[in-house]
């Protein structure tokens, strides 16, 4: 049950746009509480040495649980969070996703070429170079349903029928009449378009990608859409002001 004080209740207009599950919050954590007994936190400069730090901290805190690399893909984690689960991860199991989210510096160009989705190595290289990449310094990524969020997040991801996605685009244009620009190529949809681009550009519109549709299983009629924290608050305020699609 969602109380009036829950984050879920702060976004009723956005939440009701989704017909299955709930919006998903993605937060880039810069520190993590690692032990109730010692009451300590670990900070992170995000210098790509997360695994070494994990080993060092686990050794110094005994059996305290520390965020690990997930064996699920990021898009799978988002779908699980949509249905109520929550995760705190220091990596995930998709190589392009690791590259996009800043967990790895290894280009997915070879992976893309071997996938058969691009004509030749140059096209695959161009695709890899065009991927949005997260520049923010962070330690871990928290993925959780809106109802479990404590009130702040970096990106809100929704899965919508086209008409509902249209309403978000309309709400975005409400104040200044500006067009929404769609930047996508059918690759790195959830991690790139809906998370990194949304964080950077305030909104990320996407038709999905082969990987996320295959592995995470959202419906063919659904389109994923990401909003930054500030944009989500703006859209929430405006949605109720818009005329209904069919009055």
TrEMBL record:
Protein name listed in UniProt: Protein clustered with O-phosphoseryl-tRNA(Cys) synthetase
Taxonomic superkingdom: Archaea
Organism this protein belongs to: Methanosarcina barkeri (strain Fusaro / DSM 804)
InterPro entries in the record: DUF169 (IPR003748)
